[in-house]
Amino acid sequence: MNRVYLDHAATTALVPAAIEAITRELARLGNPSSLHGSGRDARRVVEESREAVAAAFGAHPTEVIFTAGGTEADNLAIKGGYWAARAADSSRNRVAISAIEHHAVLESADWLAREQGAVVDTLPVDGEGRVDPGSIATPGTALVSVIWANNEIGTVQGIPGIAEAAHRLGALAHADAVQAAGQLPVDFAASGLDLLTVTGHKLGGPVGVGALLVRREVTLTPLLHGGGQERDVRSGTLDVPSAAGFAAAVQAAVADRADYAVRLRALRDRLAAALATLPGVRVNGPTAPDQVLPGIVNASFDGCDADAIVLLLDQAGIDASAGAACSAGVTEPSHVLLAIGRSPAEARSAVRFSFGHGSTAADVDALLAVLPEVVERARAAGSLAG
Ligand SMILES: Cc1ncc(COP(=O)(O)O)c(C=O)c1O
User: Fold this and answer.
1) Which of 112, 143, 255, 370 has fewest C-beta within 10 Å?
2) Which of 252, 284, 310 is the last residue of a domain?
3) Is ligand 1 within 6 A of the CB of residue 43?
4) Segment 98-110, tens digit of pLDDT
């Protein structure tokens, strides 16, 4: 059975250009920090990759710090940014994050609160997940972090206004653009941000590599100490094949971005419109096309448990994702859906469908063909359980 993959926001396939770049570099010998010829050759590949990533995202090459993915880049931004701001001015002990951050940001901020005495201000969102930049106004803020495009419901934020509000307070401005990159125009210089997170495996690159873009004037306190690579902010021998594969994927994604977004948007609009006609189904997130990621549709199914829907879809050969996080075996309602005003029951019934390379109208048809029966069975199971 050919499976229908509707979980590209979790991870997506490597694009051919990335496979080619990784394969080419896997056989290379040489540490990019070594001064000899083999080292210099490896260094050249890393620096060309850095230049490609920088050019694609409107940054200067020295602003690209390679990391082992989005989680590390978010940790470095939140903890490294907070520590540096605090070291420069000890009265800055606050971190402001939106109520709909990815766990990599959320847990980093929570850790600062628990272990380091930081005060975390949670910026509220409206019913579609948008942050009002006017809510960023508390003196003593070291750092503000707002997710560029949300990974569960796709809400796109007005990042320049948020960066401006952070700067009015003298705070650093960070955005997690893991989901935005490759689907929306992401220009670091134009955004006004100090720090920006991107990762490879959501845009056709390898898992385990990403970058934090760090404005040239900004100094971060490192999380990792060692050989002083990456402006002394991220020690560790540079991973040449991953950097090359990441850069190739970023280049391909940015070159095709506008057409790709149109293709995804057509699939999204079709699915969202069809879902809205099903009884007891509510699409979560913004409705205006310019305020939502082209590739994500999230919907709550009245009287259903999201896990039941995901399992029944799985049996039908369709991969989708429950909107709720499972922690320690207990399904918690998604903090994102609660933040936009959904009830715990609505949040527990939310399923995310996400499109990417290779998604077609036939995938939407396949989903819609089985969904009414799947929902009926999940509802029946729900009413038995309830
Ligand atoms: C918005 C967002 N930020 C960060 C991450 C983490 O990135 P990585 O898987 O590269 O660590 C993800 C991946 O799920 C994400 O969707």
Assistant:
1) 255
2) 252
3) no
4) 999 999 999 999 9
Q: Do 342 and 223 share a structural domain?
A: no
Mutation to probe ligand 1, out of 102, 159, 184, 196 (largest number of atoms < 8 A from CB): 102
pLDDT tens, residue by residue, 306-364: 999 999 999 999 999 996 554 555 668 999 999 999 999 999 999 999 999 999 999 99
Q: Which of 185, 219, 252 is the last residue of a domain?
A: 252
Look at ligand 1, atom 7, and give the residue with the nearest C-alpha: 70
Which of ligand 1's atoms lies nearest the C-alpha of 74? 4
Question: Does 326 qualify as catalytic in the annotation?
Answer: yes
Dist. CA 145 → ligand 1 center (Å): 14
pTM of the predicted model as reported, rounded to 2 decimal places: 0.97
Cβ-proximal residues to 120 (8 Å cutoff; 6+ apart), any chain: 94, 95, 96, 97, 109, 110, 112, 113
Does residue 351 sit in helix, strand or coil? strand
Q: Looking at 26, 190, 255, 326, which residue is catalytic? A: 326
